[in-house]
Design brief:
Blueprint lengths: L1 H8 L3 H4 L4 H10 L1 H25 L4 H9 L6 H12 L1 H38 L7 H6 L4 H38 L3 H35 L4 H11 L3 H25 L7 H48 L1
Helix pairs in contact: 1-13, 4-7, 4-13, 7-9, 7-13, 9-10, 10-11, 10-12, 10-13, 11-13, 12-13
Length: about 325
C-alpha cells in the first residue's frame, strides 16, 4: 500500500518516494505510543458504536410500534437524538474527551516526526544525497516555538474537522433512519444528495486542513495564516487532494467494518491488533503522501506565478 499510494500521488514517483529503511523504522517506533493508546480506544469505540447501532436499528416490538405510530416520521431522528442523550450521555462525554485530548496530542507528535523526516528524505533524494541515518534522525530536535505554532494550527484543524465529521455522521444517521421508516422517494433523494455533498465538502476541506499542518511544520506559518496558504496552494489541485482524502478515509472505514461484522469487542483480540497496526501504517503513508502533495502544490504555485510575471512583462514590453 505504501508504495502504490505514493506512486499514484507523487509528481516524480521514482525520485520522491522515501524508500529509506531507517525512515520506516523510525516512524514505526514513533507510532508505538499511538498504537498502545489505540489498543484501549478502539475496543471502547466499537462497543459504544455497537450500542448506538442498536438504537438506530430497533428490533424491539415496543420500539417498532412507537415508530409506526409517529404521525410525522421525519421527527424520528430528533427522537433518537433525545434517546441517545438520555442513555449515552456519559459515554458521549468520555469518548469525546478521549478523542479530543490524548488521542489528538499523540496524533500530533507522530505527525511532527513523519512530516519532518519525510521532507528531509524527499529533499535528499531530489539532491541525490545519501539518506538520513538513525543517529541523524534522533539528533535533530524540534524547535519549541515551531511545535507550539503547529499545535495552534492543529487545534483549528481538529475543531473544524470534528464539527464537519459530526455533521456528516448526523446526516448519515438521519438518512439511514428516515429511509428505513419513510419510503418517500423525494426524501430519499434529498437525503442522499445532502449526504454526498457534505461528504465531498468534508474530504476536500480535510485535504486543505492536512496541508495546513504540513505548512506549519515545514514553513513556520501557523493558525489562520497556514490555512490561508493551504487554500492558495490547493487552488487548481482540489481534485488531487480530494482523491488523497478519499483513499485514506476509505482505508479507515474499511478497516473498521470487519470488526463490526465479526463483533471484535475484546481488547486484545487479534482482529483489533491487526486493525490498529494497519491504522498506524496508513497514518504514516497518509502524512508522507500529504508532504509530497504539499511540495507538488507549492511547485505548481511557483510555476503559476512565474508564468503570470512573464505574461505581465510581455504585455508591458508590448
Amino acid at each position: 500500500m505504501c508504495y502504490n499510494t505514493l506512486l499514484i500521488f507523487s509528481e516524480k514517483p521514482r525520485q520522491s518516494q522515501p524508500k529509506n529503511i531507517n525512515f520506516l523504522i523510525f516512524t514505526i517506533l514513533t507510532s508505538l505510543p499511538r498504537f498502545c493508546f489505540l489498543v484501549y480506544y478502539e475496543p471502547f469505540l466499537h462497543r459504544f458504536l455497537l450500542c448506538i447501532s442498536q438504537v438506530l436499528n430497533p428490533s424491539n416490538d415496543n420500539d417498532l410500534s412507537y415508530i409506526r405510530s409517529r404521525p410525522f416520521r421525519l421527527s424520528i431522528p430528533t427522537d433518537i437524538t433525545t434517546k441517545l442523550n438520555n442513555e449515552f450521555r456519559g459515554g458521549l462525554v468520555q469518548i469525546g474527551l478521549v478523542y479530543l485530548i490524548p488521542l489528538q496530542l499523540l496524533e500530533l507528535s507522530t505527525i511532527l516526526v513523519i512530516v519532518d523526516l519525510a521532507s528531509k528524505t524527499y529533499a535528499r533524494q531530489e539532491e541525490e544525497e545519501p539518506p538520513l541515518t538513525l543517529k541523524e534522525m534522533v539528533r535533530k530536535p524540534f524547535d519549541v516555538s515551531r511545535v507550539i505554532g503547529t499545535l495552534d494550527t492543529f487545534v483549528y484543524v481538529v475543531i473544524m474537522s470534528t464539527i464537519s465529521l459530526l455533521g456528516l455522521v448526523w446526516l448519515a444517521a438521519t438518512y439511514y433512519v428516515v429511509t428505513m421508516f419513510n419510503h418517500d422517494v423525494l426524501v430519499f433523494v434529498w437525503s442522499w444528495v445532502g449526504f454526498v455533498g457534505l461528504m465531498t465538502m468534508y474530504l476536500g476541506w480535510s485535504a486543505v486542513c492536512n496541508m495546513s499542518v504540513v505548512i506549519s511544520i515545514l514553513e513556520g506559518r501557523y493558525g489562520t495564516k497556514a490555512i490561508a496558504s493551504a487554500i492558495s496552494y490547493s487552488f487548481g489541485n482540489e481534485w488531487r487532494g480530494f482523491r488523497l482524502m478519499l483513499v485514506f478515509f476509505a482505508w479507515e472505514v474499511g478497516l473498521r467494518l470487519p470488526c463490526f461484522h465479526f463483533d471484535c469487542k475484546g481488547t486484545w483480540s487479534v482482529g483489533i491488533l491487526i486493525q490498529i497496526g494497519l491504522f498506524c501504517l496508513g497514518n504514516v503513508v497518509k502524512w508522507v503522501a500529504f508532504t509530497i502533495y504539499f511540495y507538488g502544490c507549492k511547485n505548481r504555485e511557483i510555476e503559476r506565478k512565474l508564468v503570470m510575471k512573464a505574461k505581465k512583462r510581455a504585455v508591458e514590453s508590448g
